[in-house]
Amino acid sequence: MKPIPPDSVGLVTPARLRFAEPLALASGGVLADYEIVYETYGTLNAEASNAVLVCHALSGSHHVAGYHSADDKRPGWWEHHVGPGKSLDTTKFFVVACNNLGSCFGSTGPASINPASGRAYGPEFPMVTVGDWVASQARLADRLGIRRWAAVVGGSLGGMQALQWAIDYPERVAHAVIIAAAPKLTAQNIAFNEVARQAILTDPDFYEGRFYDHATEPRRGLRIARMLGHITYLSDDIMREKFGRGLRGGKLNFDYQVAFEVESYLRHQADSFVGRFDANTYLLMTKALDYFDPAGAADGDLAKALAPVKADTLVVAFTSDWRFAPARSREIVKALHDNDLNVSYAEIKASHGHDAFLMRIPRYVDIFTAYMDRVFAGLSS
């Protein structure tokens, strides 16, 4: 392993908390007993006022920054933005990142053992929503002694959680940072998710979600789902820039093996996804995305849905993000303005598509850092 950079949080160890208090879910289901895995970086101050929650996106986890061991090849998924001197400066903030319920990275999910049956939950794991995640995160905050977050931050599905936090717990969120998100999915987005789900559900190795019992997994379906997802995460510009019509072997091969570089890329992404991500989790997470619609409970009026919000907000969008286009972010901004709330909006010119929120883009970093500096300054004012 290369030496750990000085601006990294370094070696980190996940923690785990068990919750015996039943969690009632929006679906009508109940999780009687569950665990949440999380990581923290930095130090909680004496007033417990400097805590920042980072919410993860669809295939993310609690491992946001740093390394789990000296042999780790990669740091956490948001290493660009979390660490000493970075946007989420761990010399100032106590950063918390938890793994959502239903995930396959440690928190209770479909692959966990159902205490009622003694076997993996599989398809019996209840459907979870963004609101359910936020409720479980509030319990985690209680256990960590955090009554109010200095900020709740997230990109994509994580940004939806940040918005839901501001709605559901207005007294507990000072700032919400909503990056590359939308107030709800379009029909086109739901359609992409449905194609991905159908790829998994119709895989002969899916066994109606009981593939754990057969010592297999729906590899084919999960691979297709991941390839489809990757296409939507990137922009046409970045795909042209990265791959163009480049040929893997320098010539057409007139068969169905990999010919173009972009085909090779998608297959690699798909192969690396299988074995580390759970198919049932993919189904759950995409459904949570589809169901997210805070305005739905307010007759479709987003401004009305955001009326309880008290947090100041930063909304960030990226010009080439066609999955959650800037116009969708501006819907959030308008609804916040309609409630006379303090909201800052930044539209970042970037060619990376939806994945831009994971990148170290100078203007994005500057704006994010400046906003978090304001958050920190407000702690001591």
Automatic annotation (TrEMBL):
Its main location: cytoplasm. It holds the Pfam family Abhydrolase_1. It is found in: Cytoplasm. GO terms for biological process: homoserine metabolic process; methionine biosynthetic process. Pathway: Amino-acid biosynthesis; L-methionine biosynthesis via de novo pathway; O-succinyl-L-homoserine from L-homoserine: step 1/1. Substrate binds at residues 226, 355. The record marks 323 as: Important for acyl-CoA specificity. GO terms for molecular function: homoserine O-acetyltransferase activity; homoserine O-succinyltransferase activity. One of its GO terms (cellular component) is cytoplasm. It catalyses: L-homoserine + succinyl-CoA = O-succinyl-L-homoserine + CoA. Its EC number is 2.3.1.46. The active site is at residues 156, 321, 354. Keywords: Acyltransferase, Amino-acid biosynthesis, Cytoplasm, Methionine biosynthesis, Transferase. It is an enzyme of class 2 (transferase). Residues 50-336 form the AB hydrolase-1 domain. Transfers a succinyl group from succinyl-CoA to L-homoserine, forming succinyl-L-homoserine. Belongs to the AB hydrolase superfamily. MetX family. Homodimer. This is Homoserine O-succinyltransferase. The gene is metXS.
